[in-house]
């Protein structure tokens, strides 16, 4: 029998994946084996500047020493214990998150989809506790909230629904960034409004301030919760700790994941009172949620975020990168728009994005095709100006080559 503990050749790994994994991903032909800071290396030794960062997960960079140290120390002490007992790293992480925002309590889970599911349940439970029979959740077209059935039903994109009907009932969709349509959709059955203030999977589209303010007013008028999905935007990505801070609006709850664990799977739902106390014992739970290992990593990642001022860095580097991208767009003539906030940016092309992403990868830059004509840039928050310039230069040459074809 082959020694499966030894490193495999890239072709062997791809063959194993093709044979034994379900075909749920359209994978790039790259086997990533190592990462450090803003760069990763593949099984053939090639280095890439990573502007995907695990779809926003590696915000503090790949294998940050503080996160690695926290994981190593916690793994040697305690990997897992049930939530039937108190868990020190979990309590410390909850304290950090609550003290750095407008929220009162935290619930921990394993992913963004689970955080959204918890938010849906919290909204309905909160209404029941008030003696109300409200259950409807208003969300936006173009949104993406996750792949589990509740989060999928909240997602306002029919292409994700196809083949999985019937969906969970009780969701109503309104056009994104249409304050009037949102206001009209909120009624006596509305338990919550669930929004991304920047639609990520929908193509990196920031909402207007008027839309977010209308959501807060409509929720208050109806006695519903305003829940913001910050799975992708939260924890520094947009140049604020929470993206809703750009809008001057405070939600009742926020769903987090991705950047929270510094590379380790963890999600969280943060909520303000009185909704924060809606769940009683046994009404919601997660076996692995808030486990010692994930919480130790997340606490270290949050400390890095604060001590290295990565939120401020995201604001500064986001402005720098956007300026370079806009200048590139003028030179190439093949970019119709550069949009986004902080280090969450999209480049809209006048032709297909896939060929450009392929050339970028061949030249050492990883970017994500988010729609047919748009590339999404989600670099680690630790990038510097030299790396931003390198990325723009590669992207510009890739656009030119793809256009020439």
From TrEMBL:
Top-level EC class:
transferase
**Which free-text remark accompanies the cofactor?**
Binds 1 pyridoxal phosphate per subunit.
EC number(s) reported in the record: 2.6.1.11
Record-listed N6-(pyridoxal phosphate)lysine modification sites: 258
Where N(2)-acetyl-L-ornithine binds, per the record, is at: 147, 286
Cofactor(s) the protein needs: pyridoxal 5'-phosphate
Q: Which UniProt keywords apply?
A: Amino-acid biosynthesis, Aminotransferase, Arginine biosynthesis, Cytoplasm, Pyridoxal phosphate, Transferase
The Swiss-Prot or TrEMBL record annotates one GO molecular function as: N2-acetyl-L-ornithine:2-oxoglutarate 5-aminotransferase activity
Compartmental location? Cytoplasm
InterPro entries assigned: AcOrn/SuccOrn_fam (IPR004636), Aminotrans_3 (IPR005814), Aminotrans_3_PPA_site (IPR049704), Class-III_PLP-dep_AT (IPR050103), PyrdxlP-dep_Trfase (IPR015424), PyrdxlP-dep_Trfase_major (IPR015421), PyrdxlP-dep_Trfase_small (IPR015422)
- Note one Pfam family from the annotation: Aminotran_3
Task: Show the catalytic activity.
Answer: N(2)-acetyl-L-ornithine + 2-oxoglutarate = N-acetyl-L-glutamate 5-semialdehyde + L-glutamate
Q: In which pathway does it act?
A: Amino-acid biosynthesis; L-arginine biosynthesis; N(2)-acetyl-L-ornithine from L-glutamate: step 4/4
Record-listed pyridoxal 5'-phosphate binding positions: 112-113, 144, 229-232, 287
Fetch the HAMAP family from UniProt: ArgD_aminotrans_3
Q: What else is known?
A: May also have succinyldiaminopimelate aminotransferase activity, thus carrying out the corresponding step in lysine biosynthesis.
Under the subunit heading, UniProt states: Homodimer.
Similarity comment text for this entry: Belongs to the class-III pyridoxal-phosphate-dependent aminotransferase family. ArgD subfamily.
The entry's protein name is Acetylornithine aminotransferase
